[in-house]
Amino acid sequence: MSATAAKPLTSYRKHWAQRFGIAPFLPMSRAEMDTLGWDECDIILVTGDAYIDHPSFGMALVGRLLEAQGFRVGIISQPDWHSPADFKRLGQPRLYFGITAGNMDSMVNRYTADRKIRSDDAYTPNAEPNKRPDRAVVVYAQRAREAFPAANIVIGSIEASLRRIAHYDYWSDKVRHSVLPDSKADLLLFGNAERALVELSHRLAKGEAIESIRDLRGSAFMAPRGWKPTADWAEVDSTVLDTPGAVHPHPDPYAMEADKQEAKVGAGGTAIVRVISRAERLAQHKAARAHTVVRLPSYEQVRDDPVLYAHASRVFHLESNPGNARALVQGHGARDVWLNPPPIPLSTEEMDHVFGLPYARAPHPSYGEAKIPAWEMIRFSINIMRGCFGGCTFCSITEHEGRIIQSRSENSILHEIEQIRDKTPGFTGVISDLGGPTANMYRMACKDPKIENSCRRLSCVYPGICENLNTDHAPLISLYRKARALPGIKKILVGSGLRYDLAVRSPEYVRELVTHHVGGYLKIAPEHTQEGPLSKMMKPGMGAYERFKQMFDKFSKEAGKEQYLIPYFIAAHPGTTDEDMLELALWLKRNGFRLDQVQTFLPTPLALATAMWHTEKNPLRKVTAESEAVAVVRGGRQRKLHKAFLRYHDPENWPLLREAMKAMGRADLIGPGKRHLIPAWQPAGTGTSTLPQRQTAHAEKRPQKSALATRRSTPAAPAKPGKAAPARRHPDVPRHPLSRRKGG
Q: Which of 155, 267, 293, 333 could pair covalently with 185 via S-S, beta carbons 3.0-4.6 A apart?
């Protein structure tokens, strides 16, 4: 199905409550409802985040969108979940509760990759921790049901998206149910849910029962075992579709192959041959797919059999293109979790509508002077697009936002810059980021919609950039130039991570970026240097990085600027061996990088890399009991070792590294020379020194580099005089609240 087949968001007749007008802020109390003249809310949105009326925050975007449709929308932000009392503060909604954990998965938000509770929460006033429960969607939905048993419960956001089928849960170290049966919700909306939310709201307002609404794209629900929408639906077992094997190319609609023929027997036994045109065959194929549901292995099967878990993950991701995805069904006991195909992406006009709604662009007044770190991070930044076609296996963007890029128009983006300039307190003329999940995918898409709708690739850029992908950076260059030409704008920075393998295709773009839009440091994410882990990440090799670095250094020099690349790397990713981490550490030393904070792989629900971590199988290829095994780093000591390699320069890590390198047969890399990774001596007061006192005392006299040293692009590159090191977020907390990881 193409995007043109979807009903535009602005084509619905507005609900009667539009007469109440636009609220300055969506109400969070009865007093605010009284001021607006409301006796009840049509929809109440529950979120684990503070309410900030800005399009970068999911509840504000959804709330303003529904308000524009004429509905009265209330917000319950960070409710006390220990009883149902706080869920009654706005009364019972006339249509439904919309339940979310917030902009981040609640478990990622609360715990580090080492399963330790974080000491702060960027989405809470004054960063106060413990203001949301574990698995917030389930807890909130249950409490809302306790408060109002008759109310409709709809769950959504990234937490629900990542848990829509049976999934491995890193924090409990087991395969858990879909979030649907655990939450007892009536409906789950996954992905970017604007279309489904608007249609659902209007249908409920017209009197349809929520249990009868079973045809919304991007929705999931519980159904009796074996239920089908109509009798003509066919069910296909996923193990027959992918028995399990390699991904076979989808038929090219332009392929010049001989048309198949359909034979009928006429009078006298003569065969009558009717030639079936290519268009007719494709239409028949599409019609058959539209009424086919793929049955995944049940929860009980994937819980008990790692091979079936990896297989289910593979099929799930192959059925993710809105143009050709089929419905999926998975048994949970005596019932099924039914998933309709993914939502149709928004058009540019619809994106402009969503981002152009009358946001207050500020936290709710009830927070007073409290600082909300997530707001401080993004209040001067702008999202220009959503989605990512990189397909990185460790990233949750694919499962939530999808691979198709949805871009705003130039005028919409420029208008938002002017709004920030004119209305946001504290603006100094600097836009902190003009980007999105990946900074340089703006306006990029498949060259032909027909090819895009038939594609089954998991990534448009791995193992190489698809020949059908339009990688033109001209629209982005034009946007940059117009943005920085606006009156009152001193600087436009690009803070989002970017795909350097795409950027090197446009030297003009790299020149524009480096000359005007880098504030001293630019983030990119090679993630690793070795083919083993890179192949499991679906990331490009270091050749593309080296080409980009050459361009970056050249254009920085031409601009007369001293600028540095800030690369991100992941420790302990599936497919990574100790030897891989040693080679990465040697690369870091050769290139003069001393990493401050490092990121350890965190298995998030539904990600392909999580399937590898849990099953030790590779779902990127054929999955059988005998198929490729994936090296997995589970033990705390080995995970600590992999992190230590990334911080080879920290004396606290030297004892562990020495022991490991000797066991690996690489003691030749221990010593005082430049070719050595770490010295044989140990400074007093660090690590576990077992050296003679004389040698330790000698070591004390040696000047030591700070463990907080800034990353540098070359060993000889000094920091700018008076220039502070870039502010670093915690590696598991996003700089921008739309996604856990940014850039590819």
A: 155
